[in-house]
Design a protein that fits this description.
Elements lengths: L3 E5 L6 H9 L16 E6 L3 H10 L3 E3 L2 E6 L14 H9 L3 E7 L15 H31 L4 H18 L12 H10 L7 E6 L10 H13 L2 E5 L1 H8 L3 H11 L5 H12 L2 E6 L4 E8 L4 H8 L1 H5 L1 E7 L1 H7 L2 H6 L4 E3 L10 E6 L2
Parallel strand pairs: 1-4, 1-5, 3-9, 5-6, 6-7
Antiparallel strand pairs: 2-4, 8-9, 10-11, 10-12
């Protein structure tokens, strides 16, 4: 589907354990740095009980969830932006993803060595954040040097570009991520996209705790939440060890395990939903006896754009979208009943699709 969340963090914080649980991939998760060198990619189905209910009502033969890709990127270390610990290679992997899930160690375990010898989530966050900032500073500096030279010609385009890059450099010099500087013009937005900066990517912090601290958290989680709040970011707390155990069980065993733990759902479900929200994604459905399917689009997508997710012909020949909200579909029990009750709407090209819409597209090519 093209949306990727990169899982980053210092070595030995539980990244690969969490990735294993997400994807049941059983990759190495050993107690030494750089166990993961090449990034591992896993495609994870989006847990959504709405799809199950719609498929049941439609008596569908095939049920297809939407998906998200997670990328397990090797542990970064201090000095990564200068190439420490194969840092430039790992930073390049981060550059390719759409959002960052930053796993932070919030548990104590004498058997798992921390690269800095102690547990300090604020220090760990700052190490990773500063390496991303330093890498972006180098990128911006090179582009600014070029733009400044070109601006000597008097070309307004390059003068404006150099001025914006100077602002961006000042932000990064202050240790802040590039995303705090909002571009004012289309040219500035295009420039930011071209630079592929690491610190423009949205970030979600994942507090990895022990089983004992899952319910109430601990002082490390509290510190991480305060830091995240200052950045306008969110924190999801999970116990990586528990999630990996859960991933090895079948559905019935999972239900029993969750009940014993006093949990309503796996923590990873919350993590997947948070990643989805971080990327600004929503889901719409196509419902039928042959197939009921969830489709991922970005918030603000119009009906023709949503149709194009199914096939380009649907977008090119779009006529209208016949829409039933999820709530109306469930209350009516079927498409036919929704049509009879007048809650199936006919929408045109300007319609912005809502999360949970059940849509039948009419098109002609």
């Amino acid at each position: 589907m093209g949306f990727q969340c990169g899982i980053v963090g210092l070595p030995n914080v539980g990244k690969s354990t969490i990735f294993n649980a997400l994807t049941s991939a059983a990759i190495d998760a050993e107690n030494y740095p750089f166990c993961t060198i090449e990034p591992n990619v896993g495609v994870v189905p989006m847990p959504d009980e709405r799809l199950d209910k719609l498929a049941e009502l439609a008596n569908t033969k095939s049920k297809v969830p939407t998906q998200m890709e997670f990328v397990d990127i090797a542990g970064l270390v201090k000095g990564a932006s200068q190439g420490e610990g194969l840092g430039n290679q790992f930073l390049g992997h981060i550059r390719q993803v759409d959002a960052v899930l930053h796993v932070v160690r919030c548990f104590e375990d004498d058997n798992i060595v921390h690269v800095d010898g102690s547990i300090d989530p604020i220090r760990d966050v700052e190490v990773i954040s500063m390496e991303l900032v330093m890498s972006d500073l180098e990128t911006v500096g090179k582009r600014l040097k070029k733009a400044t030279s070109q601006a000597k010609s008097g070309d307004k385009k390059f003068i404006a570009e150099a001025a914006f890059l100077e602002k961006l450099q000042d932000v990064l010099d202050g240790g802040k991520p590039a995303r705090v500087l909002e571009p004012d013009t289309d040219a500035e937005r295009e420039l930011v996209r071209d630079l592929c900066l690491l610190t423009t990517k949205p970030v979600l912090y994942v507090a990895n705790v022990s089983e004992d601290d899952l319910a109430e958290g601990n002082v490390f989680v509290d510190k991480l939440k305060k830091t995240a709040e200052q950045e306008g970011a969110s924190v999801v707390t999970i116990a990586g060890g528990i999630e990996q155990e859960l991933s090895l069980l079948d559905e019935e065993e999972q239900r029993e395990f969750l009940a014993d733990m006093g949990m309503e759902e796996p923590g990873l479900h919350r993590l997947i939903h948070a990643g989805y929200e971080l990327l600004g994604l929503i889901t719409y459905f196509t419902v039928g006896e042959k197939e009921t399917r969830a489709w991922t689009i970005t918030k603000g997508t119009t009906a023709p754009g949503a149709a194009g997710k199914i096939h380009t012909d649907f977008e090119r020949g779009f006529i209208r979208a016949e829409v039933i909200s999820y709530e109306d579909y469930i209350s009516c029990g079927s498409e036919a009943a929704a049509r009879d009750k007048g809650v199936m709407r006919s929408e045109g090209k300007e319609y912005v699709v809502n999360d949970g819409d059940c849509i039948l597209f009419r098109f002609n090519v």
